[in-house]
Design a protein that fits this description.
It is a single chain. By secondary structure, the chain is mainly alpha-helical. The protein has a domain of about 230 residues. Helix content is about 50%, strand content about 5%. The longest helix is centred in the last third of the chain and has 27 residues. It is globular, with a radius of gyration of 22 Å.
């Protein structure tokens, strides 16, 4: 066969691939269409795995690696597997931190499901922050954070700064470079968005009565990056968005996100659901609107977006470097983490199929499978 014909035939087959996914009819800008195909493959593959597991009476959301990496970092989870440590014992205070998150994330997703409009707002995210930090009068709120701020209470003008000391990169200049790359990537996103919708982002926000629309931007700049923190003096001090900018930033974020949700109902979007959820999570955590629990709250927001599009949850435990990462890299990291998780779930299905069916659901079940395939109670 002629090489050009065979290549053309292959390309045609790729372009004509039929997906069963729930959003395959959505139109994206041409340069983002491949993202949608990846999203569809992820949804279809996950649905097939879930079907296999249901036939064995196994709840996919209770598989250890799938659930744990929604909250626990990859390195801590790998150590836990080696030491046969249950996820609830990884983060202190244990098991309170895990128990509050585990019940809180389930209740948060249910809270979102109960919203008929599936619109995002400050009230919803305040409630989610409370659910992820408190349960039955107990709290896993970090004692080092602003004690005058309660869970669910937003930062406002006059509040203390929220910052952290990082040792992620060896040189202070590395942080400045990462911040510049991150800003450049979101500035490009805004330029592309404005071309696609033929309007400025500021006008878009103004027409929807957003706060301080004349400043509206998709790029969130950290307030301050300075060297010399930590007991060794070698860390880099990073301060999140200034407290008096939180309200405006959240206003723009929710308007942008809700617009994309509405656009999807009309059969078009600016970016794929997974890319959208990754960008919004990165944006939210960079704002850091609460005194504590911003990371888990931003990931809950991401999961709610994915739930709306009937997509599996990401392994955010291996996506810890969100604030300083460039957006393109961060989105690609999401897709790579999905590939790893789906491969693990396929491995688990293979292990389960080799078991005596009478073992499934018994106390001895986990002794027959690898730690990542264990079923969490």
């Amino acid at each position: 066969m002629n090489l050009k014909i065979s290549i053309g035939l292959f390309a045609g087959l790729m372009n004509s691939t039929v997906f069963a996914c729930s959003f395959s009819n959505i139109k994206l800008p041409l340069n983002k269409q491949s993202q949608l195909q990846r999203d569809c493959r992820i949804q279809d593959t996950f649905a097939d795995l879930e079907k296999d597991l249901k036939s064995m009476n196994i709840d996919i959301e209770k598989i250890a690696e799938y659930r744990t990496l929604r909250f626990i970092s990859r390195d801590r989870w790998e150590d836990a597997k080696k030491n046969s440590t249950h996820p609830s014992r990884i983060y202190n205070p244990a098991p309170l931190t895990w128990d509050i998150w585990s019940s809180g994330i389930d209740r948060s997703l249910q809270l979102f499901s109960n919203k008929k409009s599936h619109q995002f707002d400050k009230k919803l995210m305040s409630d989610v922050n409370i659910l992820l930090l408190t349960k039955d009068g107990q709290s896993s709120k970090d004692s080092k954070t602003d004690e005058q701020k309660s869970p669910g209470e937003y930062r406002k003008a006059g509040d203390a700064d929220v910052a952290f000391c990082s040792h992620e990169y060896p040189l202070f200049s590395d942080y400045l470079e990462k911040e510049n790359q991150s800003l450049a990537s979101t500035e490009k996103l805004q330029n592309d968005w404005e071309k696609y919708y033929n309007t400025s982002f500021q006008d878009f926000i103004q027409k929807r009565n957003g706060v301080n629309s004349f400043l509206a931007s998709l790029s969130v700049s950290l307030r301050n990056i300075a060297p010399g923190c930590g007991t060794d003096g070698k860390g880099t001090h990073i301060t999140y968005v200034k407290h008096d900018a939180v309200e405006a930033q959240l206003s723009w974020l929710f308007i942008f996100l809700n617009h994309q949700i509405e656009e999807s109902k009309k059969g078009r979007m600016f970016m794929s659901p997974i890319a959208l959820s990754a960008f919004v999570q990165k944006w939210f955590v960079t704002i850091h609107p609460f005194a504590d629990g911003n990371g888990r709250t931003s990931r809950a927001l991401e999961e709610m977006i994915l739930k709306h599009f009937q997509l599996p949850y990401p392994s955010t435990g291996e996506l810890q470097n969100d604030v300083l990462e460039s957006l393109d890299v961060y989105i690609e990291n999401h897709y790579n983490s999905y590939d790893r998780m789906l491969a693990t779930l396929k491995k688990c299905v293979g292990q389960y199929k080799k078991l005596d069916p009478n073992v499934i659901g018994t106390d001895s079940f986990n002794s027959f499978v690898s730690p990542e395939c264990a079923i969490l109670n």
